[in-house]
Every structure is written in structure tokens, then in C-alpha cells.
Amino acid sequence: MQAATALGPLQRRKRVRLLRARSMLIAGEGDATAVAFRVGHQSATRFSREYARQLGSPPSRDALRLWRP
Description:
By secondary structure, this protein is mainly α. The protein has helices spanning about 1-5, 10-25, 30-40, 45-55, 60-65.
């Protein structure tokens, strides 16, 4: 799997969680804190930091940028 995705299993799982969180934020399924817990993070602060590091901007700003009414 790592050869196909260039990510190890843990990194892939983190990435999938973050992308799922992004989809939930865009769909308006809760704020960043609620979404963080729904996708399995235990700390909203750590989730926000990891989200920004992996996806380029904090979750709340990213959701506003990507959201289309």
C-alpha cells in the first residue's frame, strides 16, 4: 500500500480523516471542534494544527473558502 500511495498506514489514515473532516466542514455538518471529535481526534487544538499543516489553512478558514451556498 505504501508504494501505491507514498504514505505509510498511519499517515494515510490521518490524511483520510482530514479529508473527511474537510468534507464535513464544507457540508456544514458542524464547526471545527465538533468535526474534529466526529472524525476521531481527541484534541480540537491538535486537529486544527494538523489540518493546517496538511491542508494549508486552518479548518474554519478552509471551510469558508471552499463552502458554496
